[in-house]
Amino acid sequence: MFYVIGGITVSVVAFFFTIKFLFELAARVVSFLQNEDRERRGDRTIYDYVRGNYLDPRSCKVSWDWKDPYEVGHSMAFRVHLFYKNGQPFPAHRPVGLRVHISHVELAVEIPVTQEVLQEPNSNVVKVAFTVRKAGRYEITVKLGGLNVAYSPYYKIFQPGIGSHYVAQGGLELLDSSNLPALAFQSVGITGVSQVTQPDYCSSYNKS
């Protein structure tokens, strides 16, 4: 009797998981047929879609090489980590249609960027580098195939560089406090010499 009850329980559990798998399979197939246009689908098949063997923007991640807030004027970068829907790394050397747009929120100033695929075995990372010249709040949008990556767009704040902001003023202060007295001293010295030499010249002329 115990073996009969156990066999029935196992059969019910197996039947439940089979039904669940079939529902998930049907949902993925319907989603693939309805939402995937030809450009985004490419060479992807229903089998790849069911297995999750395709690049999924929402499964990708972005890591930052700096901590907020950061000073302007420095070259900085962030990394886009590409993943399949099933969680496996997606090779970055394959064409993925990565689009990155960085702009100043208030001034609407666009920042040029460069993309670099890291030369590592089976690398799934694309490095994006840029340089910010104006302080403020920036919007960083990362898209794959027209879809936002993870939590894109991101918002980052860059503050004025303390060292570069006071370089010109520091130079003027140094000139006012130290160089100008030196120049004044030199001017006084030259005037004194001219005043001293003139009487000598006149006295020698009178003697002659």
Automatic annotation (TrEMBL):
Keywords: Membrane, Transmembrane, Transmembrane helix
Name of this chain's protein: Apoptosis resistant E3 ubiquitin protein ligase 1
Protein encoded by which gene: AREL1
Residues in Filamin repeats: 52-158
Origin organism lineage: Eukaryota, Metazoa, Chordata, Craniata, Vertebrata
Signal peptide: none
Limits of the Apoptosis-resistant E3 ubiquitin protein ligase 1 N-terminal domain: 2-52
Transmembrane segments: 6-23
One Pfam family of this chain: AREL1_N
